[in-house]
Amino acid sequence: MSSNGLVEWGCDHCTLLFMSLQDLDALLQQRRDEQELAQRLSEPVSVETLIELGRERGLTITEDDVFSAQLREDSDVPSSELQKRMAEESRRLRHFIQG
Fold it and tell me: What is the rounded distance in angstroms from the CA atom of residue 50 to the CA atom of residue 48?
């Protein structure tokens, strides 16, 4: 990991930089100290809103960071709970998709 918090991978034509989840984790920690941020995050927000909230605080958060955080959280959940979540999502999609 480089000094700026980025992980670097080299390839033939470019160097790919991947931001760690540190900024997203920092944003979620800041909600404990910032009442306004805690209020905004007390209800579900879009990925774009989460990215903007980070940007307002000088943090770099990407859509990939958000999805990686979800995967990280889901990795600790028992498979029975994941199956229950998927069943609920499937029911919602069945009502949304016509035909």
Answer: 5
